[in-house]
């Protein structure tokens, strides 16, 4: 029995040859020191995760489990980011997952039906099913949580063709997907790298060549996510409870507009000419086209067993993309200074409302407000004010999305 929260980090859950799908490691190998500095691109990759268990856990505690998939636009981010810390969730086991990003995880090859980065996360869920009891967790009571790109992966794993029953419910915070599938961009990556997109040719490149080619590729796709699973078809989601969340000011940190006509930007982001900004033009455009679009489409496509909430800030205190992560996990005071999205002294009532909704869901209780349904009901959480139910608060957005 342990008297305080215990974190086990750098647990090796899987290994993979470069540009191959990963495989689970045997239990006896989970706790070896991971290889942190492979010598070349041919070296085996080791994928790790972090588990935080509540105080006084035993192997028979059967605490609820939350598996967290980090964001980072499918090209960055980390499983050990400070705002994914689960120390302040008494009675809940948290698992934060590393997965391959960028070319390594999402440059889909001709013989692949899924994405290596997504498959990595599926293996982490398989690992949880096999081993989480050793950390006090209940493998039959797992919530999958993701934010941004992580929410995109979580929703992708909830597709009927991927869902294996390894989690019972899903919390998707500000989900993001590419609007264009990789197969339609493969020629751009080929040109950026100067080599065919095959395992043999990719593995022959150095880290520096891959990184340089990836940067060149991303620069040629400035108005969309360059990597990630697509196209997202929410009608394919399995029938499990899903809470979808976004903020109204997701990307308002983007205040400077590029030297591109606004009408052309609208076309590039896939919105109609009738669309109007509700804040900084580019920030509003990214918010609606890259985040809220997917919350709206997912809820409209499967209105039952789905709950929607939107966090709304003000001109004085916007609620940016990622602002809600510390509220969900109740860890704002644990975060280092200097994270521009974080509200370091959040309104206590707002943070408590968000945390309570998440915590109750993690424990296995459905949200207290009605599902989205045919009336398109959602919970609007107004920062430092009220939380109110509204009918179809995306009505103003729906006609303007292509």
From TrEMBL:
Residues in Carboxylesterase type B domain copies: 30-175
Keywords of this entry: Hydrolase
Listed GO MF terms: hydrolase activity
Gene3D superfamilies to which the protein is assigned, alphabetical: alpha/beta hydrolase
SUPFAM superfamilies for the chain: alpha/beta-Hydrolases (SSF53474)
Keyword Ribosomal protein part of the UniProt annotation: no
Transmembrane residue ranges: none
Entry's EC annotation: 3.1.1.-
Pfam family, one: COesterase
Family per similarity comment: Belongs to the type-B carboxylesterase/lipase family.
PANTHER family referenced in this protein's UniProt entry, alphabetically: CARBOXYLIC ESTER HYDROLASE (PTHR43142:SF1)
Protein name: Carboxylic ester hydrolase
Origin organism lineage: Bacteria, Bacillati, Actinomycetota, Actinomycetes, Mycobacteriales
